Amino acid sequence: MKKKPVLSFWQIWNMSFGFLGIQFGFALQNANVSRIFQSLGGDVDRLAVYWLAAPVTGLIVQPIIGYYSDKTWGRLGRRRPYFLVGAILASIALFIMPNSPMLWIAVGTLWIMDASINVSMEPFRAFVGDMLPSEQRTQGFAMQSFFIGLGAVVASALPYMMTNWFNIANVAAEGEKIPPSVKLSFYIGGAVFFLAVLWTVIRTKEYSPDEMQEFEKEKLQSNPDGRVNTKTAVELISKFVRSGSAFLLVGLILSYFIYSNNLEKELYILGVGLALFGLIQFMTALLAKSGKTNSGLVSIITDMMNMPKTMKQLAVVQFFSWFALFAMWIYTTAGVTSHVYGTSDTSSELYNEGANWVGVLFGVYNGFAAVVAFLLPVLAKFTSRKATHAISLVIGGLGLASFYVIKDPNLLIVSMVGVGVAWASILSMPYAILTGSLPGEKMGTYMGIFNFFIVIPQILAASILGFFMRHIFDGQAIMALLLGGISMLVAAVTVIFVDDID
Questions:
Q1: Is the pLDDT of residue 393 over 90?
Q2: Is the pTM higher than 0.85?
Q3: Could you state, in order of their start, the residue ranges of all structural domains in the chain?
Q4: C-alpha distance across the termini of the chain, in Å
Q5: Is CATH 2.40.110.10 the right assignment for the domain spanning 9-227+306-497?
């Protein structure tokens, strides 16, 4: 048996460099897609619905890609084929998005773009678990956080830079909907995405299947408490049926309640989603009972039922963390332009000035996250990964909530510095804690399943925030940011209950 070798700084740099491109895609999407939707006629209280494509795509794509990447061993290795294919498709979508002639095409392009980014991104998380020994995992995820921050700070500020540094028009020409500054930013993002991922594909070599088996034996010998006690799909048939019945019943009751009270149609996403998950578990039980236990669906649902305890605890933390982030991504442009700049006229110069400033603010939190990424492992060494994550989430929650009381656009930079601390930690600490509790041969599958607890709160946010905007917040987008800050503070409290076994 042998242990994974300790990698050099530059080896970790090369294997993480692709995240620079991935975050270029995500940052352009997060900072500008709501702006594009509004410019194409989308209503502010429908923005969350338009964004549903992103989390739904992640919910479906990531566990599938994780499952198949665990089983892929080709000329390019185990994870790298998915890096490359996703980068090609995402780059094409980035070129198409700012040229969407109408709203429904932009929403469809977001679906394709987000699916493609997820194809590249999901295996990168498992990649760190594959390549690095336990003592370097925190450093590995911190390096990913650095590239995420670096890529996002540039990509988020690109429209601002195009306008103020290169005098590219920031208002669409007559007959056009999207400003040239936004279009050029997306073109640059598509090129950077592909080239950065290509660098990792070329400069990194993965371990062979035999080497991975040896590493896993050593890991279990050195940490027997980290062994995952699993049940087979056949042993879980009754649990599939019970759980499926509960989800189906709750989903149908909720859907009927929404229908009978004539509530917003986007709320059906919750009811139908719960019912659909119940049906999926029934289908899994039928397949397992008929002996088809090797199918992808049965394997993924079975592994989900066998989640390690640490993963279940982290799921709660992730839920509240990502609900806050999704509220921020959807409503910061609308909240800042209306609450701070005092306008909702998307064709006005003042609105576009505010929208550009949001891009700068997004660059601030990502840029600060890039710096903090290298400090978090040091703090974790002197305290713990749990304490580091909890402290970071408190700082981020207060920063996000402070948007409600700040009227000076420049002071929002301070708020975003706090969000940047939380963002750096969210991108590294949960994964550093999680990978120590996962079996190496299913690292990709479990990373994909872990993504459920990122996208489910996003789907919930997309389902209910529009309802809140119309009936509770009186159309004030700034209230969604306040709610997001509170959610992040709740996430900080739930970190206390996580067991970091590695």
A1: yes
A2: no
A3: 9-227+306-497, 237-302
A4: 19
A5: no
